Structures are given as C-alpha cells and as structure tokens.
Amino acid sequence: MIRTECLTKRFGGLVAVDGLDLDVREGDLFGFLGPNGSGKTTTVRMLLGLVFATSGRIEVLGRPMPRAAREVLPQVGSLVEGPGFYPHLSGRANLALFDAAGPRPGPRPGPRDRRRRVGDALARVGLEEVGRRPVRAYSSGMRQRLGLAAALLRAPRLLVLDEPTNGLDPHGTREVRDLLVELVKGGTTVFLSSHLLAEVELVCTRAAIVDRGRLVAQDRVEALLGPTGRVLVTTPDVAAAAELAAALPGVRLGERRPDRLALHLDGTAPEALNRRLVDGGVRVRELVVERPTLEDVFLRLTGGLGGRPAPDPGEDRRVPG
Q1: Average pLDDT over residues 15-33
Q2: Least CB-packed of 63, 135, 176, 239 within 10 Å?
Q3: Among residues of the chain, what percentage have pLDDT more than 90?
Q4: Residue 285 in 3-state DSSP?
Q5: Could you give the C-alpha distances from 289 to 63, 184, 234, in angstroms and in order?
Q6: What share of the chain is helix, strand, coil (3-state, %, to 5)?
Q7: Strands 158-162, 189-194: parallel, antiparallel or unpaired by DSSP?
Q8: Chain centroid to CA 189: how far?
Q9: Which helix (H) or strand (E) holds 6?
Q10: What residues contact 280, with CB distance under 8 A and at least 6 apart?
Q11: Pick the residue with more confidence: 228 or 66?
C-alpha cells in the first residue's frame, strides 16, 4: 500500500527526512512513530504529493507518487495536521463541498447519495447531532472529528492520518481508536502518524520508529515488544527462590527486594523456573515475564532523550524559502 526507497527531503541545509524505507502492507494498522520534529509530517506530505521529495522513490497503492496522483488520491483519505473548514458553514455543508470539489473514482454522486454519505460519515465520528451547527461553534476536538469524517467520505482503500487524536478528550481518543480498528477489519489500510507511543501500542499491528528523519526500527508491534528475557518473581521466600533459581542453567540473579526477585533467563523457560520454585517449597505469589512498552523500545533505539531532534518544517508550519 505504501513503499518508499531512500526517501529524502532537504530544506536548504536541513535534512528533514533521511533515506527512509517504509513498507506498509494491505490490511495494516500501521503506526508511524517519532517525537515532534522527527520528520513525520514532512513524510506524510510527500506520500500525498503535497511536498516533492529531494530524492528517493514513493509508491502508494502500487503506483508512483506524485506522478500517479490523479489515479491514487481518489482512493486515499487523509487528515494532515489541523483540518481547515469554512467557519460560517455547518459541518454538513463543509463535507458536501469537500466531496463535490475533490477527485473521486467512478461517476459523480447525486445529491441524495451525497447527503447519505455525509450523514454516515458524521455518524461514524459522533457528530450527527451537531452537524448543522456552524463550524465556528465547534471545539477543537469536534473540528478534528470533522476532519476525520472528511477523510472517510469516499470509503478509501488507504487512510493516512497525522495525529488524528489532537484536541480530543480521553473518551474521544478511545472512540477514534475503536473506529480505526473497525475500519481495518472492514478492509481499509490505516497509516497512523503519531508521537503518542502508548496510543499506537494499543491498536497498531505494525510500526516504524523514526528519529531525526531516520528509520530506526520497522516490524510487527508484537515483535518490537518481545520479552526482555527478564522474569519478576513475587514471593515472601526471596532467599530460597534465589538459591533454587541460581542452580538452574542459564539463570542469572538480578535485583532483589524483600518480596520480589528479578531473574535473567537465557535458555530456561519461565514455566520450568516456576516448577522448580514450587517443587522447592517457594510460595510464588506471581511470576511475570517482563515485556517492554513501546516507549521503552523507542528510548532504547534512539538513545533516550539526550539529543534534541532537528525541527521538521512540516510540523512547525514553517514554509522554506
């Protein structure tokens, strides 16, 4: 659905995107992760043909971009940064104008079909009750929902979203997450650009992490969050647990607390460790195989918070001369 090879974008002496190789497959709910200023929005703009790449190749839906934009864009829904609407018009009127003005595959819809699709899109993002209000009366979260409704109007094969939960409260954020999962089940591929690592961890099937314009990881989320090899054992018998565990091959003792013991396993299965402890009379209250969060993975791959990333012209809205 999306493939880039050595994608690079320079603004004068600033390298915003540096040799990026993305691979987004059909049916993915793909998270595109990185801190503010890491090149995410510039990348999204290049994918949609809004900004030309300095070098490299882009394919969207198997076609080269931006050369094939007329064929590709009618099948792509997008929400990039803050959505823009006519403030004096209602949400419904804005969506109807958006639909009438944009390219689309097949014949133009009639007024009745357009009204139906506008109503369906508003209902999917929870705005059916306020669709007739002027947009100037909308909160920032409601405007963000309206932007998502515009992206869904034409039942896209590919949905490209840049920080879609900006301005939403926790309830609205969860509704958007649930909607994205529902869309993927219905056959839509979703490319979700975000700096909210926990949000992506909850819903995405595959992810790429970028730092200062460079790709540092790309894989299935479950592979990125693989076990660390560390097991945490909670027990009132810490001393006995440590003695029994140390006798197993490939087990290294870690930090110890009055009621908890950390163990590093290299070759010994957690269930074998648990059996050894229980058979040895240790009262095991809990045995947990430690897994990192996406934040842990990100900080490890990018070296933590040490370096300050170069600003992304796409994200801070500067227009290069």
Answers
A1: 96
A2: 239
A3: 58
A4: coil
A5: 44, 30, 12
A6: 35, 25, 40
A7: parallel
A8: 12
A9: strand 2-11
A10: 240, 244
A11: 66
